[in-house]
Design goal:
6-stranded mixed beta sheet; single chain; mainly beta; 114 residues; globular
Length: 114
Amino acid sequence: QVQLVESGGGLVQAGGSLRLSCVVSGTLVRINPMGWYRQAPGKQREFVARISAGTIDYVDYADSVKGRFTISKDNIKNMVYLQMDDLKPEDTAVYYCHNFRDAWGQGIRVTVSS
């Protein structure tokens, strides 16, 4: 059974940074594409970033976070990360780790104050 556990969220001022982590068990990030989604209050869950399986990392981002967020993974630790820089109030949401199959993390809250 795949389990995803996020950490690293919190409250930050606009312009600040946070780094989210996702501990992956039950599958390997080396062979499973991984990504991040988010859900803001009153809105639908939306795609944020994706990283490919394998040893060469191909990444993809939502237009709203390009140039500010960076997704990465550690094949040894079996973890996925989301470095979030230049955060904006509109980035406030619950962020979820996802394996593009049937597993989601419990979500971690990120709040950006203006």
